[in-house]
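Section 5.1 Outputs to date
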Amino acid sequence: MEMDDGAAHPAKIFIINENGDYFWLDRLHLGALRQFVLFRSGLAGAGAVRTIVRLISFPFALFYLLLYATTAHTRRALRRG
């Protein structure tokens, strides 16, 4: 009698999402994994353009906020003397 320890299947990682969908992490399921990652990152469907615009605009918004904070704190420090 031969025992099956799962060695017949090349994948050892099992992926389960919040909906109960599951698949093995192997080459046969790369398409499903890609769709899963795109959906979870917001890059699938109608929200893809909005997500990409947010990613592109983030560094500019961060730079503006840092510049504003630096200016405000510098003015306050100069007024105090």
